[in-house]
Amino acid sequence: MRRPALGSLLWGVIPFVGTCLSVPLWDRIDPRILGLPFSYFWLISWLFLTPLCTWRAYRIEAKRDAVYLSDGDASDGGGA
Amino acid sequence: MSASATALTVIFGIVGVGAAIGFYAGSRHKMTLEQWTVGGRAFGVVFIWLLMAGEVYTTFTFLGASGWAYSRGGPALYIIGYQPLAFLISFFILPAVWNAAKKHGMQTQADFFLVRYGSKYLAALVALLGVVCIVPYLQVQLTGLGIIVEVASFGGIGRMPAMLCAFTLVAGFVFVSGVRGVAWVSVLKDILLLFAALFVGIGLPYIYFGGIGPMFTAVIRAHPGHLVMPGATENLGHAWYMSSVLMTALGFFMWPHNFGASFTAKSGDTLRRNAVIMPLYSITMPLMLFVGLTALMVVPGLSNGDLSLLTLVRKTYPAWFLGLIGGAGALTAMVPSAILILTAATLFAKNICRGVFAPDMTDRGVALLARVMVLVVTAAALISAMNSSMSLVSLLLVGYAGVAQLFPGVILGLFSKRVTMPGVASGLVVAAGVVAFLILSKRDPFYGLNAGFVGVCLNFAITGVVSYCTPAEPYRLDGAAAVSLATKGAHES
Known about the structure:
The structure holds 2 protein chains of 2 kinds.
Chain A: H1 6-21, H2 23-26, H3 38-70
Chain B: H1 3-27, H2 33-38, H3 45-56, H4 59-71, H5 78-104, H6 109-117, H7 120-152, H8 159-209, H9 212-222, H10 238-252, H11 256-261, H12 268-277, H13 284-298, H14 308-316, H15 319-357, H16 363-386, H17 392-403, H18 407-415, H19 421-440, H20 451-469
């Protein structure tokens, strides 16, 4: 068993705050951006921001994999 | 040719091409149980992406999302909200699931529970919950197919005969091709859908309003409250949004077919990279909502919001184009249907029948029984579809509320050493019961919260308390399995 690193989990929390928990702050029509109501603009932005956050987490986990696998316990590594 | 004949010819042409690709791709591989269900466990990033994407774009996306934007308004935003989060969650859990699956030769989601908790009864329970939840999901696809043919034939062909013939085709398709064939058809389907989404999502607002911005301005003027929550509903506000987004994001990879799709990956790293890029695929979702909102202005007063996209397309474009959109929609229903049926049939045959009742059954026997179950599951969804009038999105949310209850067992099973079988089993049973009660007695949303979310919270609490009160069990995912997994020499890779 290997749990994800704290750093990657923190990157993972950001989109949850951005798209889910903060809904009372952005569920509004104004300001309109690019013609879109603010809520639409906000959620569409997160379709691009979420991969960025996940990619940061990926970098962290990939680095850990390299260390982990070189320690010899390859059988339990998160990646291949 | 009349308009309806043109549209239907194009639709059946597209479906025919899709079916041919599936048969061809499937027929090139010898169909052992391992090939049929997990494609020999050899799919790389691209193929996995296609397979998972195949399960993202369903009729729910196509007709359901626009339908909710049309009939509900603001709450439909949850559809854009949950998808990136679902993939984010997969980043953290699927590689670990894949490792365990690879090590123990798992083929189904219930196998995971069997190995981790060492109980065939818990595994059968998980399989049963999966099959039960798949029925409404299948029903979504079936109803969607029915709607497509009904609208494209200008009402000439009723929804019932349309659903019947479409599902004969789907069932036949599943029989022959298995998971590999499905993944290839999914390529065709996604290209068509992407094209269709761009064309209608940008084109329709442009044709009627001169652009997406002016379309929104018109909607805001005509229906001032429609775009913010609770929109056209009374009780789907912010609490509902948050609880639904969380519940569906947690539930997404708890669908037995999505969970199982991860087994087809070549490595855990494939799944991680996949999780990074998948949210980009959701870019069509807002386009579908735009179509629903345009329809609200142009074809108001439809009794069923799910009809809005196709009705608007029919009104705007020539018949052959309606056929193209309808054909894309039909494949969008067929591919996920095939995957769902395949999963449900395998779960039933392997983890319920062999797992509990007939432990001596061979892999050949399981594969055979699974094929019989294809017909049973399809028939169940068909009957259910004929007797239901729920909107596509509401129907899917019911299924989600059920499968999300598997989340505590999976996440704690992966990352906690203290969780026990009685804990997970009691959490699952009580939560599933409470969710079923809330939904059937029309108490969903419950104090503004999604019933499935209430269930997940309760589930975690019960699992935690009961696990704490029962003796610790070994962590069975590392090292050799305590329970020998009933794959009986099926997996060699």
